[in-house]
Amino acid sequence: MKADLRKAVIQVGDGRGFIAEPCAPVRGSLAPILGRLVVAAAHCLPWLPPACAVSYQEEITYQKLLGPLGQEPTVWAECLFVDPIADIAVLGSPDNQELVEQAEAYEEFTEQATALSIGKSASGKASLLTLEGEWSSCTVERMRYGHLFIENAIGGIRHGMSGSPIIDERGRAIGVVVAGGDVGGPSPSLVDNLPRWLLSQLRIVARRKN
Known about the structure:
Blueprint: H1 2-5, E1 9-12, E2 15-20, E3 37-40, H2 57-60, E4 61-68, E5 75-83, E6 88-92, H3 100-112, E7 118-119, E8 124-129, E9 135-142, E10 147-151, E11 165-168, E12 173-176, E13 184-188, H4 190-193, H5 196-199, E14 204-205
């Protein structure tokens, strides 16, 4: 299973990100479905969008930001959400009215990848994707303020792993790697640091009761 999960991890600038699986549309809901989204570390973005509810398209659209892991990025993306304190960002398709070709390229690229469901974070065993493309075991401790403290990561957390998903034992993404070293932390938990309107767009799998 984890071999397939590698296909969800992509290049985001000089760092990484991963494709998140959208939830199924709710019948009768007027909320738009954004499709597949990319979760990344905020510091992997070339710049942060302005603190403004209404921004110009060029202020929130990144050219040639996404690509297959380890390759030169060629795919455009739009910033839907960023929290520079928690160090987490969510990217989506460019405007499909003004940037038709770029939006089509985003959709094609994300649909070809594996998509990860989101899990509710809890302390326990987890895995990280190394720079060599192998899954490495670790443990995480969920902090009170909505972060995950990574411990016992085999090989440590190295430069270039930022934006990688933290995967629980069931193959669900529970957080994003943002800090390196022998001990990596704190890293943002997805369910604790993403806003409700974005979580409503993503498939969240409840923790199985023992």
